[in-house]
Every structure is written in structure tokens, then in C-alpha cells.
Amino acid sequence: KNHHQKTVQFAPESPVHFKPELGVQFALEYPVWNNNLLEYVGKSERLYSDEIKEKQIRKYKNLIFIKYQNRLEISGSIHYYFNQGLHNADDFYIEYCINAILQIKRIFKLDLKKCFIVNLEYGVNINPIVNVSDLVHNLIYHEKRQFTRNTVHNDYKQAGVDAYKQVKAYNKSVQFPHECKNTFRFEVRTQQAKFIHSLGIFTMQDLIAVDNYNILFNSLLKEWDSVLLFDLSKDIDLKFFNTYFWEDILKNGSRNKFNNQKKLYYKKLGTNNLHSNIRKIIERKTKFLKCVHIPTITKVETAQVKIKF
């Protein structure tokens, strides 16, 4: 799955103040929902409080359009869209992303200022100097949330499954073996709009502003800084490589003990450690993505987006 995914919801500009009348709703939806390019997918009905509510589904390329009674959602990967739905394993420059958003805007006559972002997923693909499967295996915590394998794939982990923010890390080359080799993906997925708002990003209009991608890149680095990664190449006290040691601190230690021990652990590793080296690679890659048509060895994507209209 992946990237640059958006969900758009159509609703009156001030739904808090009045219920949408059919005319208002129709006027807002008409250019999008009635676009001839949309293909019919299906519809379903569900019973809510003795009232039957229907949703209709259409699609354009890899973009899914779901029409509810009071809104319209559009979801799909912008990176996939840019690559004709084939994959998202190559470099996705900021320029490419913005151009794809503007193309979708033109085709469906969207007002980007009315596309409110509800969910945002953004990440980067890099080629580390170590085996990616081993790297994923040695990811232990993000903040104080343990990395877990929630799928049958051993090369995939995520932390904060129930939180308003998730961090995912996996081997991208398992997903697209013909498109990339030994490629590590690190991404952030927001579950609630409040996290995106804290970054100063509210609508799709914000995603055609280049400066906002700097905010996303800095956020990505900040989340990586919160990761506890075992670097088994270092000769330090073995207790630091014991997951029970960290679990016990969380269970029985003082409030700050976990973070203090993590700082001590990274200090003992020294400045030239796996975690800091990967940070440098991520930082270098984000700089490449700001450039135009710079060929690079590593593969990257910037963001997955869910948007409300």
C-alpha cells in the first residue's frame, strides 16, 4: 500500500451551523461525483438508528470516490497515481507530488482550500549499509511504544497501533523486488487530524506549498530520533540488548528512567552508530527530494494523505 494517499470529503463550508440541503450538497459535489471519468464500483446500505444510510463507490485510476449522504471522500495513493497505478518504489520528488495534486485538481475541478486533510501518511525509502531484514528485526521502541509485527510478514513492524500517530518500518524491496533492492521504508501515519494540524497543515492547498514538505521531513526526522534501535555491532553491556530490560523499566521504573537509559545507551554506542548513520541517510534523502530530476541510487516517497472536503 502506499503513498501520497488522499481522502477527500465534500460538505458545506460550515456544516456545524446548518444541515446541508440537497441543492448545496449537489452544487458542491457536481463537478466531482458526476465527472464522466469516474467508473462505477458499487454501493452498500447500512442501518443506523432505524435509518438506512447508503454509500456509493466510484473510481478513477487508483483513486477511490465514496459518496455518503453528507460528504464525498476520495482516497488513493498520489505516488501510485503518478506512476499510472503500477508501484510507488521510485523517487517521488516534491515537484512530482505537487504536479500530481494539481492535475487531480484540474480534472475534478477541486477547490483545494476546501479539501480538509483528515489523515496523512508520509515517509522515506533509503538504502542502509546493513541488511534491511536485520534492521527491521532490531527496531524495538518508538517513544515508549513497542514495535510489533502485525502482519504475517517478518520484514514489517509498526508502533502505536492504537495511538493517534503510528510509525511503520518495513522492507520495501519485499513488496517490490523488481523495483528496488535492500530498501528500508520508515513512515509516519496519522490517525487523527490534530497531529497534522500541529504541523500547520490543514488542507490540500497546504500540500502544493513546497515549504510544508520541509515540515514533513523535519517531523520524520523527529520521529526517527524517538526510535530505540539495537546496534549489535557494538561491544557494550548486553543488558541494553535485552528487551526485558526495557520492558522492566517501563513497568517499574520512574517516569523519566526509560528516556534516560535510552540516552545512556546511545551515548555508550558512540556517535558513529547505526541509528545516527540512518538518520544521516534519511536527512540526505529528504534534501534530494527537494531537487528536480536528480538521479539517485536510493528510492523514496514523501507522503500519503487522507483529505476531507
The computed structural class is alpha+beta
What is the element string, with H for helices and E for strands?
HEEEEHHEHEEEEHEHHEHHHE
As a whole number of angstroms, the C-alpha radius of gyration is 21 Å
Average pLDDT reading = 84
Helix content: 25-40%
N/C terminus separation: 23 Å
Q: Using DSSP, what is the number of strands? A: 12
Key attributes of the depicted protein:
309 residues, alpha+beta, five-stranded antiparallel sheet, 34% helix, 24% strand, globular
Describe the structure.
- The protein is of the alpha+beta class.
- The chain has a domain of 173 residues.
- Helices cover 34% and strands 24% of the residues.
- The protein contains 10 helices and 12 strands.
- Strand 2 and strand 3 form a beta hairpin.
- The relative contact order is 0.19.
- The C terminus is likely disordered.
Summarize the helices and strands and which ones pair or pack.
Layout: H1 22-33, E1 39-48, E2 51-60, E3 63-67, E4 72-75, H2 78-82, H3 94-108, E5 116-126, H4 132-137, E6 139-142, E7 145-146, E8 156-159, E9 165-171, H5 172-175, E10 184-190, H6 193-198, H7 210-225, E11 227-229, H8 243-252, H9 257-269, H10 274-290, E12 303-308
Antiparallel strand pairs: 1-2, 2-3, 3-4, 5-10, 5-12, 6-7, 6-11, 8-9, 9-10
Helix pairs in contact: 7-10
